[in-house]
Specification:
Strand order of the largest sheet: 1-11-13-12-14-17-15-16
CATH architecture of the largest domain: 3-Layer(aba) Sandwich
CATH topology of the largest domain: Aminopeptidase
Order of helices and strands: HHEEEEEEHHEHHEEEEEHEHEEHEHEH
Distance between the termini: 44 Å
Length: 432
């Protein structure tokens, strides 16, 4: 075995130590930057990146500023692509009292995204699920409530229902809310969303620990259905180091659920401030380390409203879809303790095997899990148009999703470095 002289050995160790320290500092700085961006996007000033106070537009402007800071250019002279949507919003008053006790939004109750508002005293009649599933009996109950003076709302107990029963009652509460106010009693984790419609009456979800047979509710809910609201996709373009007709696309949606009243907002840290931050991180890396592909970075709006931003882009593409070699959609990127899941893995088996091979060779993530096609994020419309695409999301102990607890403080970013390494290597060695 050849041995270095002791002086050279010491110098070699010093160089290795110096490189290690520099690399560690760079990695720490990158994670700090991702945390900064995530924290900013989750701040109250962005209003949950929804449609109250134009939170989504504020986020879009912030993302453009970050792209400019990195040194990326717009696509076709603009960083934006506008589109319209209808959205039901809750901009101001949001108050529910139960038997005189003020309830906490997001903890004790949610209003349905399509709920109507108003100032009302609700005295709901609890209807057994068996009655709710019997059309004739349900009609009789509705008539009784409408003609009587004791009750003016329906309460449906959805606690501990089987999956089959839940399928049978799907849509029932919305139908009933077309006739009178509805209280849904649940013991499940609260999960909110976005609606483009408004019901005729309030529809409110209450935790079962709150509700009793003598429950009465005083509600004051401000609602505004906005027609033709303008939202914007955000783009930045990075040309290949040598002229190329091939383009890799990185995407992440930046929008979230917004506000449920003036005092309560949904931060959307994991979903998807984390993916937006990683998108910007990838932009910074490839700006400093160009590859053989053009790279287009897209931050989509309207994802939570039904994948509307990506649908609009596919219908009005700013690059030829058949020139996209591969698309990588980053959504829910704040953990990784249990690895990542790859949607569309079964459609693009060669590329998935390539991801797994890189992961195994470099000993990066705990697992790279395969999942089939799913219409659950912005990759979907591209796949429908024949564009090869993966939707990648992290797995870990953080289960906060579409709730008020999805905060930046609950993200670990424990596998940030390994995920970005995997993405970089995949892009560098893509064979399309």
């Amino acid at each position: 075995m050849f041995k270095l002289p002791s002086m050279l050995m010491k110098q070699g160790l010093f160089v290795l130590l110096f490189i290690s320290v520099v690399y560690s500092n760079q990695t720490f700085a990158q994670i700090e930057e991702v945390q900064r961006i995530t924290k900013t996007l989750c701040s109250p000033e962005f209003h949950g990146r929804g449609y109250v106070n134009k939170g989504d537009s504020l986020a879009a402007e912030f993302i453009v500023a970050e792209f400019k800071k990195i040194g990326l250019k717009p696509l076709k002279k603009s960083y934006f692509q506008s589109f319209k949507l209808d959205v039901n919003t809750f901009p101001n008053k949001m108050s529910i009292q139960h038997n005189g006790r003020t309830l906490t939004p997001g903890v004790h109750y949610l209003v349905d995204p399509a709920s109507a508002g108003g100032k009302l005293e609700l005295h709901p009649k609890l209807i057994p699920i068996e009655t709710a599933l019997n059309v004739e009996k349900l009609i009789e109950e509705i008539k009784s409530i409408s003609n009587g003076k004791e009750y003016n709302a329906i309460a449906l107990n959805f606690v501990n229902l089987s999956a089959d029963t839940l399928k049978k009652v799907a849509g029932l509460k919305e139908e009933l809310a077309g006739m009178m106010p509805v209280i849904e009693i649940t013991n499940q984790k609260f999960t909110w969303s976005v609606s483009d419609q408004q019901l005729k009456n309030p529809l409110i979800q209450i935790q079962d620990s709150i509700f009793s047979k003598t429950s009465s509710f005083t509600i004051s809910i401000d609602v505004q259905l906005i027609k033709n609201y303008t939202s914007r996709n955000v783009f930045a373009y990075l040309p290949a180091k040598k002229k190329s007709k091939k383009t890799v696309v990185y995407t992440a949606h930046y929008d979230h659920l917004g506000r449920m009243g003036a005092e309560t907002y949904f931060p959307g840290a994991n979903d998807n401030a984390s993916g937006t931050a990683m998108l910007l991180s990838m932009a910074k890396y490839f700006k400093e380390n160009p590859v053989d592909y053009n790279i287009l970075f897209i931050a989509f709006a309207g994802e939570e409203a039904g994948l509307l931003g990506s649908k609009h882009f596919v219908e009005h593409p700013l690059v030829k879809l058949n020139k996209i070699s591969f698309l990588l959609n980053l959504d829910i990127m704040g953990s990784g303790e249990d690895g990542i899941t790859v949607v569309n893995a079964t459609l693009f088996e060669n590329e998935f095997k390539q991801l797994q091979a890189i992961n195994a060779e470099k000993n990066l993530l705990k697992q790279v899990k395969s999942r089939g096609p799913a219409a659950n994020s912005d990759h979907y419309w591209f796949t429908q148009m024949g564009v090869p695409a993966f939707f990648i999301y992290t797995m870990g102990p953080n289960k906060n999703y579409h709730d008020v607890f999805d905060t930046q403080a609950n993200l670990s970013f424990v596998e940030y470095e390994d995920i970005t390494t995997l993405l970089v290597e995949f892009t560098k060695h893509l064979k399309r």
